[in-house]
Here is the input.
Amino acid sequence: MTIRVLAFSGSLRKESLNQRLISHAASLAKAQGAEVTLVSLRDFDLPLFNEDIEKSPGTPPDVLRLKDLLKAHDAFLVACPEYNSSITPALKNAIDWASRPRQGEKPLECFSGKVVGLCATSPGALGGLRGLFHVRDIFMNIMARVVPAMVAVSGASMDEHGTPTDERQRGFMEGMVKDVVFKTTALRR
Here is the structure.
């Protein structure tokens, strides 16, 4: 059975380093035999979560489109820029909208039991690592299965395709993606 992986970053920036990194992670998952969908949060019109909007005029169409994508995939690869040592507002907002159950949906249906691999990059020495801890906590609290290895590519040391230029960091990325594919495959058996 082929597993389906959704890959995206928590950035809205057109030239996002993290979108480039997640593109590399997506190619690694494809090489492992996964069916991969690569998207950008830029492609979704997600207003700031507000329960009043949800009630009237109703859940926005792009929220529904994102939720359908999340539900249709077995696992997620997420590259998370670090904003002030934490998660980006765009990623938190997307998670908040997607966590809201619609009529007929199970609680946390978009996330519960899904395997998640996390990575980040930044020009700094820690590569976005501090923010990954917050992102991991959020995903775990919404019932996702986050693989233990989180990869932070320091110094934004990547080529134009998002491949880390450091051999160790390339190995960490490959290992994290293999872990996501392996664990997801094992869960689907």
Q: What stands out?
A: The CA atoms of residues 158 and 165 lie 5 Å apart. The chain has a mean pLDDT of 96. The first strand starts at residue 4 and ends at 9.
